[in-house]
């Protein structure tokens, strides 16, 4: 509009300093669609040819990136001196009257801010389920345009970025999942809602939520924040009154402040701190003028009941009723259950401890299952192939089946237990054998049923026949199953009684082993004490002998002295 006020004969060129490449590309696309020529001038595309086109006045709008000035070495010199500023103004033929600073209100009253404490982990993003309807209830064309499912970030290829921006602008899809690479740099009129997940820098969040409601209609900003951030401040009591707030403090303060969010974002932009106490003088000074100018605030802090009601109505939102929902004018008696939209919880499989009473029959079943699968594999694919049957299914897989046997109720459970299938039909074949074994095992141990002969091996339980012997192939030996006949005239003991008796026997055996070990340990201690005593006595004897050899004998010294005296007496008589 302002460009059209300038006479066309003057060949006006508008320069715009743009901090984000994505915003520049969006503005260039917008100007091209309006019939103007524009270029987003960056460090990478600024060359001699582009420079000549700019000098010739080819472009009506030129969006400059800050990095563009780094191409010229002389532009990196210091220019803060007044002499330099005077020279710049003289070169541009500017005076003080031509310089005007326009200060606008940063508050966006048409954007309703809702802060929600997350109920799920940040990585799962399951809290976003509350914002969107099921595909069974709304079509893609009626879904509220939102910045949040198609991927767009700084690592996305340039062509993919252009395709995403163009397709969203044309309404081919309604939702984008993006980072600040796109969330800070677009001027789309169709965006009605922005959802931000996780705590973030208030300045960046303020910019991102400003992407909605740019067509003059109401917009909605939903900010999901963690209840507790590891290493952060999660309550107002952790902050100190009057202390300055660093970036991390502001990040946490915006997630927990109980005050008006509209005022909190405005104060963070102007004063670089987030208010936390209602008696803050700056907060009081800022809140009253905003209420007089913009009316009552409907953020989640000022009106939590209305915010909760709005979140509940978002599952009904579409392009037709979104304005009514944001203005709290939507009412319905319908109830939609979101449980079906959440993924089913995974049922974890747990190993069981095999009772000693069942171990023989399970070991027999494991061995029989392994042999039968090997025979089935060789019969189906032939022997001498690239993989042996033992490499397909071995002791490890069979042991896993035994440990998780009660929990194998579907082929999917079996697949999780053995780690997948190696050939077509393997899971179905194994599951059939396991089902037959479990069915016969439960029938032989069912309480109140007729007591059948107890078997000591598994082949009879795996067979689908009622006989206790199983017919094998022509090259396989027959398997004979023994029966344990109870004594005549007596009732065979129950399985519980056998297990209890075996447990008592094991307890006695463990106690006996402990006693034997204790006695052996005491004997070893006695032997060590005896050996130590003998060594000490021997050392003492050697010490006494050594002292006797090194010290002179008193009797010997007395005799030697008397001999010397008698010898002197003889010498005196002779002379």
UniProtKB/TrEMBL annotation:
GO terms for molecular function: 3'-5' DNA helicase activity; DNA binding; four-way junction helicase activity. SUPFAM superfamilies: P-loop containing nucleoside triphosphate hydrolases. Keywords: DNA-binding, Isomerase. Pfam families: Helicase_C. It is an enzyme of class 5 (isomerase). Residues 565-575 have a biased composition (Basic and acidic residues). Its EC number is 5.6.2.4. Residues 462-472 have a biased composition (Polar residues). Residues 117-262 form the Helicase C-terminal domain. Residues 455-495, 539-575 are annotated as: Disordered. It catalyses: Couples ATP hydrolysis with the unwinding of duplex DNA by translocating in the 3'-5' direction. One of its GO terms (cellular component) is chromosome. It comes from the Eukaryota. PANTHER family: ATP-DEPENDENT DNA HELICASE Q1, DNA HELICASE RECQ FAMILY MEMBER. Belongs to the helicase family. RecQ subfamily. This is DNA 3'-5' helicase. The lineage of its organism: Eukaryota, Fungi, Dikarya, Basidiomycota, Pucciniomycotina.
């Amino acid at each position: 509009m302002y460009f059209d006020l300038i006479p066309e004969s003057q060949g006006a060129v508008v320069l715009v300093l743009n901090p984000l490449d994505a915003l520049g590309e969006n503005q260039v696309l917008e100007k091209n669609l309006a019939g103007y020529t524009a270029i987003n001038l960056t460090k990478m595309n600024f060359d001699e040819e582009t420079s000549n086109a700019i000098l010739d006045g080819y472009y009506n709008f030129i969006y400059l990136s800050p990095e563009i000035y780094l191409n010229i070495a002389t532009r990196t010199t210091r220019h803060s001196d007044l002499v330099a500023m005077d020279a710049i103004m003289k070169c541009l033929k500017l005076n003080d009257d031509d310089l005007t600073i326009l200060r606008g209100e940063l508050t966006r009253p048409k954007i309703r801010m809702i802060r929600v404490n997350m109920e799920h982990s940040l990585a799962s993003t399951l809290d976003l389920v509350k914002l969107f309807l099921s595909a069974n209830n709304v079509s893609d064309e009626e879904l509220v345009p939102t910045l949040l499912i198609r991927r767009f970030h700084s690592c996305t290829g340039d062509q993919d970025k252009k395709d995403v921006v163009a397709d969203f602008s044309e309404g081919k899809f309604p939702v984008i999942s993006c980072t600040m690479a796109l969330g800070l740099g677009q001027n789309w009129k169709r965006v009605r809602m922005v959802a931000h997940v996780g705590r973030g820098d208030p300045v960046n969040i303020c910019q991102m939520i400003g992407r909605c409601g740019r067509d003059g209609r109401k917009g909605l900003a939903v900010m999901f924040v963690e209840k507790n951030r590891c290493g952060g401040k999660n309550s107002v009591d952790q902050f100190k009154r009057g202390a300055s707030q660093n970036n991390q403090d502001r990040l946490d303060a915006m997630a927990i402040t109980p005050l008006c969010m509209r005022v909190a974002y405005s104060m963070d932009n102007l004063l670089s701190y987030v208010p936390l106490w209602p008696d803050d003088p700056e907060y009081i000074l800022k809140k009253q003028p905003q209420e007089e100018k913009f009316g009552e605030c409907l953020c989640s802090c000022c009106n939590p009941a209305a915010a909760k009601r709005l979140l509940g109505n978002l599952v009904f939102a579409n392009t037709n009723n979104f304005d009514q929902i944001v203005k709290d004018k939507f009412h319905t008696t319908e109830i939609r259950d979101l449980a079906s939209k959440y993924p089913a919880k995974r049922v974890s499989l747990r190993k069981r401890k095999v009772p000693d009473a069942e171990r023989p029959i399970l070991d027999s079943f494991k061995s029989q299952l392994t042999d039968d699968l090997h025979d089935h594999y060789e019969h189906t694919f032939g022997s001498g192939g690239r993989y042996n049957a033992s490499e397909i299914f071995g002791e490890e897989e069979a042991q896993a089946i035994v440990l998780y046997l009660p929990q194998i109720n579907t082929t999917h459970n079996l697949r999780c237990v053995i780690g997948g299938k190696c050939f077509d039909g393997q899971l179905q074949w194994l599951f059939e054998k396991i089902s037959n074994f479990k069915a016969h095992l439960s029938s032989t141990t069912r309480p109140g049923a007729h007591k059948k002969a107890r078997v000591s091996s598994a082949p009879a339980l795996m067979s689908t026949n009622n006989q206790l012997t199983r017919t094998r192939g022509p090259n396989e030996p027959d398997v004979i199953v023994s029966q344990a006949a109870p004594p005549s005239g007596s009732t065979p003991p129950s399985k519980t009684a056998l297990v209890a008796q075996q447990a008592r026997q094991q307890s006695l055996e463990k106690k006996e082993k402990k006693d034997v070990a204790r006695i052996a340990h005491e004997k070893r201690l006695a032997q060590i004490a005896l050996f130590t005593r003998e060594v000490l006595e021997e050392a003492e004897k050697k010490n006494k002998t050594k002292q006797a050899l090194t010290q002179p004998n008193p009797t010997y010294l007395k005799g030697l002295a008397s001999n010397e005296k008698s010898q002197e007496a003889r010498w005196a008589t002779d002379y």
